[in-house]
Structure formats: structure tokens, C-alpha cells
Amino acid sequence: MCTDCGCAPPQPEHDHKHDHASRKIRVEENLLAKNQRLAMANRASFAAHQLFVLNLVSSPGSGKTSILERTLTDLKGKISFTVLEGDQQTDNDAERIAATGAPVKQVNTGAGCHLDAHMVGHGVEGLDLAAADILMIENVGNLVCPASFDLGEDHKVAVLSVTEGEDKPLKYPQMFQAADLMLINKIDLLPYLRFDIEGCKAFARQVNPQIKIIELSCHSGDGMTEWYDWLKAGVAGKRRLVSSL
Amino acid sequence: MHELSLTQNLIEIAEEHARRENATVITSVTMEIGALSGVMPEAVEFAFEACTKNTLAEGASLEIRHIPALGRCQKCGQECEMESLLDGCSACGSYALDILKGQEMALIELEID
Q: Which helix (H) or strand (E) holds B6?
């Protein structure tokens, strides 16, 4: 029995009949209420550790893990990271992250198409959150379902690579509306592709006028500094917030 | 297909409320789905039958009320109906809309026995 979330084996049905008339009851409960409650518990626990928490979302193959690998390597000694890797199967990504020296845990969702707050709450058990500045949660590669599930993060970061269509923000608006930052990855490939990067940015802003956009390539390193500055500002913001309390 | 886990949540919440009322069966479930909730009502209907097996709601009917979406323009204050997150303000065309309604996905009412 988990004390935080109340997850427990199902209770046996009671076997006596009641003699009630058929009646209506009002419920009015959001289907995500439980996830929301667990996400708030995660958020409170992350806040206690002054942890800057990002939920990385994208379609499969956009380069989330590669961006993480480069980021963890380049910022080694400057920012300390801990990583939660979400995939349906395998711990291949966790192995790639572990090779950078950062602490990492793999969460396999099995048939599940997204991480939820419950999986994240249990997923971070055993990670030393107090020792980290940033928790990176790499969600399951899927531009639809993870949009609906708050994990307790500070920001969703949507990664879109230029080998995909520039109209992805229009096709999957929920995700780009939920994200605060969009990373346009693989820009070193732009000379070989017909990807309208200005069009892509305009589409993202149509769905989410406030979204911040950084163009980068984790392969060539272009644009990575801007991403690192954004991360550093996030970490500094957490510390300021706590020191002002 | 996050509708599957949402439908499981729906049934979990429904059973919780029904048990609290000492009900032995749930005969109907009424829910609301907003136009901008990112949930496909057809997928919920499909998942409902499978997910209710061996629960208090087995055989229950499912009524889904569709909630149209409403936004308010941050620039000119106009309130306008929205059909998708891609819609702009009907008066000035700005895309900076605050969503007032249409993101609901909630269990509203149960009929129990």
C-alpha cells in the first residue's frame, strides 16, 4: 500500500444485497482529479528540493534523448541533473543517459501511451532529488496523450525536429498549447530539407502565442547555448524563489 | 489512446461514489466532454464497454454531453465560440484567446441501484 497515492490491491466485493431503490447521484468530478492531486503532491516534493522540473514531450525520433545526452555532458560540473526516462519498453534510453554519468531511472509504461503523475511519483523513488538542480522527465514519444497529464513539472518542453512536418503544431495543437518552450531540433539538416522554419514558428504561435522557441542542433551544437541559458535561468529562479521565502 | 486510461479513471470514480452509497450496481453514467479537452468521445464509448467488465458499471449506459468551447480575446475582449485550438478571435483575428469553456472531462451523474 502506497501511503501517498493510496494505490492498493482491489478490495473484494461485498456479497450482501442492499434493498435500495434506483436513484441518481451527482458527482461532478474531473476525470483527471486523481492525477491532478498526485501531480500537486509531486510538485510539493520537487519544490521542497528546489528542483527545476521539465517534462520533455515529442513524437518518437525527434531527438529528446540525444538533446539530453549532449546537455548532460556539456553542463557536467555546472548543473546537476537527475533523469527519469519513460518508454513503453526497454531501458535503452536509460543506458544512454547513464553513460553520461547522470543518475537515471527508467519507467516502462507497458501498453501505456504516456506517463502519469502516479508513475512519476514512484519513478523518482530512489533518485537523490536533494542532490540535483534539474529533474528531466523524458515522456513517451507521443504528441497526443502526454499533453493531458500533469506530472508536477514546471514546464512541458516540446521538441520538434526539422525532419518532421512544419505543421505539427497545427496537427497536434493540444501539445503545443500545453508546452511553454518549443525546441526545434536538427537545424544542421535544414540545407537538405524543405522545412519552412518561419512557418513552423508561426503555426506554434497560432496555437500558443506565449510559447518560447529555441532553434538548435544537438549534433552540431548550434543554438545549444540559448537552451543552456534558459535552463540556468530556470535553476536560478528556483533558488531565488526559495531564498525569498 | 489516453481515452483508455481516462475511461478507467471514470469507472474508478464512479465505483467509489456508488460504494459510498452502498449501491450494488451502476445503471447509467453521465459525463461531459469539452470540444477542446483532447478527448475523443467515440474512443471513450469504445473503451467504456471493455473497461466496465467485472465492475459495478457492467452493462451501464453511457451518456456523453458535448460542451462547446468558448474563448475570450486577450486583445479586444470579444467572447467567441471555438471549434479548435487553432481558432482566432472572431472580431480581431488575434490568436491570444483565454479558454473559458470547453476543456471539461468530468463524471457528472450516476444512476445507481
A: helix B3-20
Instruction: Report pLDDT for A6.
Output: 65
DSSP chain A: --TTT---PPPPPP--------EEEEEEEETTHHHHHHHHHHHHHHHHTT-EEEEEE-STTSSHHHHHHHHHHHTTTTS-EEEEEEESS-SHHHHHHHTTT--EEEEE-TT-SS--HHHHHHHTTTS-GGG-SEEEEE--S-SSGGGG---S-SEEEEEEETTS-TTHHHHSHHHHHH-SEEEEE-GGGGGGS---HHHHHHHHHHH-TT-EEEE--TTT-TTHHHHHHHHHHHHHHHHHHHHT-
CB of B24 within 8 Å of a chain A CB? The answer is: yes
Note the pLDDT tens digit of each residue in A66-120: 999 999 999 999 999 999 999 999 999 999 999 999 999 999 998 889 999 999 9
From CA B58, how far away is CA B48, in angstroms rounded? Answer: 9
* B47 contacts B4 by C-beta, under 8 angstroms: yes
Of B38, B39, B109, the CB nearest to A24: B109
Give the minimum alpha-carbon distance from A183 to chain B in angstroms, rounded to a whole number. 20
Task: Give the integer Cα–Cα distance in Å for A183 and A215.
Answer: 6
d(CA B14, CA B11): 5
| CB neighbour burial string for A229-242, b if at least 16 within 10 angstroms, e if fewer | eebbebbeebeeee
B35 touching A, CB under 8 A?
no
Could you give the CA distance from residue B113 to residue A165 in angstroms, rounded to a whole number?
52
Question: Which residues in chain B land under pLDDT 50?
Answer: none
Cell 479548435 found at = B84
pTM comes to 0.89
Q: How many CB atoms lie within 10 A of CB A199?
A: 13
Q: Which of A23, A25, A31 to mutate to test the interface with B (most CBs of B within 10 A)?
A: A31
